[in-house]
Q: What sequence folds into this?
């Protein structure tokens, strides 16, 4: 046996102790400790290569204390060495006898394209095929049509699973419904289901996102809502629905209660919940009526500035001369968000 200097006793004295060499080291942490262990008080200890601290290392204790020492405690470990060590812990050891499964890879590709919102045509890029070939030559890269079909198939499978979950709920479902017009002047309706699952976890899922033809009358809204509920089979599981405080929405809810077999509690007396955010917006808009003309002039000024790159450039030149920050553009407010009007005025 060889000998090593033992851990300091705090008095400055040192004692020679025998050492042993452990067998079967597989953890990467051993790269940061001396090859041989020392025996202190019949307990084997590992010596840190950086600070010479001795840490207990037995079959029962394992290497947890060694890992914590290198990853957190030892102040003499350089930052770059520590980062590399932590990174090495995250790497998965290569599986012996690994068999490549092209079907699983294609499923994961579909999952990635949905989660990252990757355009389908990106999969036709020759550089993407070259990249895949460098990692797994036997994997045949599919085209954007196949990826699109796989995404639709995944959507249908997830919808069936969610439909089964909603239909088997012991609790009721609250809905929120929103209708708006896009910049292309197309009307859309989004329906979101809010519910508590069997594990008492609050969840929300978008169950409909479809276009609604003009005009957005109460009949059109009620028809689109009824079609959505019939598709999901949850018409008799509803508790409340939250909508904007508008006449067509109120009429749509009234039509639904009168014409549908809903089975709501209290015959739907508390079914319609008016959106608090929309009510607050109405209150603020009403409160700003006495400065409406001033706000409209500011909107006209912003529209005038945004209509030309030369005007923005001239505006920024004046701002620079006055020691003010430049603007890439001026943002206009939107009618149904009172805080957007506040932010527009704040930029002045």
A:
């Amino acid at each position: 046996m060889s000998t090593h200097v033992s851990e300091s006793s705090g008095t400055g004295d040192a004692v020679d102790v025998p050492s042993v060499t452990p067998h079967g080291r597989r953890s990467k942490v051993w790269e940061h400790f001396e090859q041989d262990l020392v025996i202190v008080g019949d307990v084997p200890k590992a010596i840190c290569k950086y600070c010479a601290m001795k840490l207990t290392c037995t079959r029962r204790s394992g290497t947890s204390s060694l890992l914590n020492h290198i990853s957190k405690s030892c102040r003499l470990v350089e930052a770059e060495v520590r980062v590399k060590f932590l990174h090495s812990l995250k790497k998965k050891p290569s599986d012996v006898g690994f068999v490549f499964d092209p079907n699983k890879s294609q499923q994961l590709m579909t999952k990635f394209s949905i989660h990252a919102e990757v355009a389908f045509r990106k999969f036709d890029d020759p550089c993407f095929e070259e990249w895949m070939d460098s990692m797994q030559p036997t994997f045949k890269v599919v085209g954007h049509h196949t990826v699109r079909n796989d995404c639709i198939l995944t959507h249908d499978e997830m919808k069936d699973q969610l439909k089964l979950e909603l239909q088997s709920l012991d609790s009721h479902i609250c809905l929120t419904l929103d209708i708006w017009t896009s910049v292309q002047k197309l009307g859309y309706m989004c329906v979101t289901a809010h519910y508590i699952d069997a594990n008492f976890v609050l969840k929300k899922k978008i169950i409909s996102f479809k276009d609604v033809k003009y005009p957005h009358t109460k009949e059109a809204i009620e028809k689109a809502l009824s079609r959505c509920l019939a598709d999901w089979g949850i018409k008799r599981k509803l508790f409340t629905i939250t909508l904007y405080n508008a006449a067509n929405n109120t009429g749509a809810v009234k039509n639904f209660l009168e014409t549908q077999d809903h089975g709501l509690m209290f015959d739907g007396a508390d079914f319609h919940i008016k959106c608090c955010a929309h009510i607050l917006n109405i209150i603020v808009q009403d409160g700003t009526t006495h400065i409406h003309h001033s706000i409209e002039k500011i909107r006209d000024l912003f529209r005038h500035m945004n209509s030309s790159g030369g005007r923005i450039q001239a505006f920024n030149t004046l701002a620079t001369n006055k020691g003010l920050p430049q603007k890439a553009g001026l943002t206009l407010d939107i009618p149904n968000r009172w805080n957007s009007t506040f932010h527009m005025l704040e930029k002045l």
About this structure: Residues 1-18 have pLDDT under 50 and may be disordered. The CA atoms of residues 111 and 272 lie 37 Å apart.
